[in-house]
Each structure stands twice: as C-alpha cells, then as structure tokens.
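B., you asked whether I could sanity-check this one before it goes into the benchmark set. Here's the sequence:
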Amino acid sequence: MTSFRPVAGTLAPLGGAVFVALWTVAEAGRSGLGDVVVLAACLGVAIGLSVWLPAVSLGLVVVLPLLQLGGLAPAVGETTWPMYSALGVVALAVAATGSQVERWVALPAVLVGSAAAVAHMTLPTTAEPWRWTSWTGGVVAGGHPVRDALVTLVLAGAALVALSWAAGFGIGAATRLRRLDSVLTDTEGRLAQTDLELRLGLERSRISRDVHDSVAHALTVVVAQSEGAAALSRRDPEVVAGALAAISGVARDALSDVRGLVERITEPGDELLSLADVPALVERMRGVGMQISLDEHGDRPEIRPAQQLTVYRLLQEALTNALKHGGSTGRASIVFDWRGPGLALLVHSWGDAPLVRRDSLPGVGAGIAGMRERARLVGGWLTAEPGEDGEFVVTASLPTRPASLGASPRGASAPALVTAMATTTAATSSPTTPVPGLARGDEATPRA
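And here's what the prediction gave me:
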C-alpha cells in the first residue's frame, strides 16, 4: 500500500483533469455547454480527490445526483449521462487506497449516488414530462414501463458501481498482502539473524566453559606436579620421573580436548558420534548393496570422545569413497587392530573397475586431504593409495594413551610410564612404522 498509494495519488488528479477536458471537448458546439462543464467539473473533482480526500469525493458523488433529482443542479442529457461512470472510478479508487472505514463506507455511498442518478435519468417530472421516453417504452407517466425501467436501471447501476468497488477492494487487498509479505520476510530475516546470533553466543559460552574446564584443570595439575617434582628432585628421583610422566599425560589430554572442541565448532552434532555408531554406519552402506566385512582384533581401550569421532569420520569417508568409485556392488574390508600402542585402521575397497589410477594419486581430492587432517589433529597419520588389482587402501594410525598415563604417579612406576609414553611417540612419529596385524591377507579379506 505504501508503494501503490503515491502512484494512485498522482493518477487520480490527472484522471480528473482529463475527465473534464474530454467532456468539454465532446460537448463543444452543443447547447447547454455551461451545464456540461459544471457537471464535468464536479465529477472531475470527485475523481481527483478520491485518493487524498476520499470523504469529500464520496460526498460529491452522493450529493450531486440528489441535487439533480431535486432539480437543484443541472441535469444530464441524452449524450451526457455517461458522466455517471465517474461514480465507478471513485468507488474503485477509494476501495483500493482508502482506510478500512473509508473502504466500507464507499460501497453504500456510491450505491446511493447510483440510485439517485438512475432516478434522475428515468423518472419524468412536471417540468420535463418528455424526459427519457425511450427508456420508458414511450409512456410518459403512470404506466408500468416507467417502474420496470427504474428497477432495471437501479439494479444495473448498482451492479456496475459494486463491481468497480470490488475491483478496487481486490487491488487494495493484494497491495496490502504484498506489503505484509514484505514485512513478514523482513521479520523472518531478523528472527533468523537473531537466532543465529543466539546460537553462536550459546556455542561460544559452551566452548568457553569446555576450554576453561579442560585447560584450567590440566594447568592446575601441571603446576601441582611440577612444583612437587621440584621439591622432591633431590630426595626421590623416581617420584620426579612419575610426576613428569603425569604432566605429559595431562598435557596430552588437554591438547586432545582442545582439538576436539575445534572440530565441533565447525561440525555441530559431531559430539554425538562415537565408535558405538560404527555398526549402524556399516549397515547403512550394506543397505545400498555393498559387501562389507568388519573385523576387530585386540581389546578396545577407553578412548576420548574426540578420538572416537575421528575414527568414525575416517571410516565414513573411506566407505563413501568406496561407494563413489566402486559402485553399489563394490566390496570393502574394515579392520580395527587395538593390539599395538594405538589403533591401526585398515580399509580395503574393490570395485568393478580400478577405483583410482596410480597416475592420479597426486591429484587426490579434498576428502582424502580432510581425512589426513583429521588424523593429524589427534596426533596420528593416514595414507590413502591404490593397491594391486584395482583396489584402494586406506591406512590410519591413531594414538590411544593408556589410562595410567594420565593418573597420579602414586601406584605407578615411573619407568613404566616413560616407556609407555616413548612407545606411543614411536608408534605415531612415522607413517612407515609397521603396524601389527595389518599384513596383507591377515583377516582383511572381504567376505563373499
């Protein structure tokens, strides 16, 4: 409505001026031109004010026919009666641009004006008993043809102005709906922005709490252990070695927690995924037609949520690549080996055709690069390369620190802690380190 009203406000005065000019030109040279100009001016003003002063406009189209009916205003003739079409124009303009009260007042107002105009044109008077005899079937007064003509013309006039009002009401309603839709869209955008800011604020608060809880605890333990080690360095060297091992373990825990937080910042909902979701992932891939075997060797230790998420995502990406390049009839073999100092993960995949050519290895996609980055974030490594006979092999090694590494030095020997830490470092320092249980053909052959 805000965009339509200025346009209508400009067109209405122009339309009124054109209305007066056309009727003046049309009736030029005929008798009674003065009366025509007066009537055209009154109705032209009604048209021109229909947008800006609708009450005045409606008053004119009601009062003028009533004055004509009472003989107090110039009458229309055989050629000028179409001037009353101005009533329909006023009804349309007010219904389209007026307020709610003005819109509903406009309909009865133009109906009254139309009925008065029809009565003025149809009913003969004492002064003019010959008026509009062609509309009354040649009967001047007292006969049924006059009554029938009056009823017919009143209904016809009412229908015309009512249709004009309905058209204007529809235009106004459509304009208001467009405006409301624009306001609604703007409101939805603001709400979405507010929701995003709220969620970001909540996420920042959660991350802040998690970082505080993890890092503050780790630093407290590190400070306590380091101060105790400094105090006992001369009297009990074994306790010092245990304290240093504990400090290393707590620092590794804190680093793993922070890395997990970094991953969750960009992937909301990942904190819900763990190794317990791996069987469901395998079953989903089997559901599309792939043949997948899943083998696990050794006892699974308790590992941190960030590490479980990494294992799940690595396996998910490996199976996705197998499906993408090998088709729904492809085969895959998955091996989890917990017998070493960390997890050794091996995924073999075969398809109807070679999945990755050897000469295309330098151009591996972002999926494999992302897998390598995930493994690196938790202190591990990953390789993905084509094997023999068109197969593709994904190998990953992810560290799993024994629970005693982060425990208090009490009850644990320092040499054992240092040895375990050194073994873990050696296992994760180079991707060329042999991984037990992953030799080709060692329980990695896919099931038929």
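One thing to flag: The chain has eleven helices and five strands. Otherwise nothing jumped out at me.
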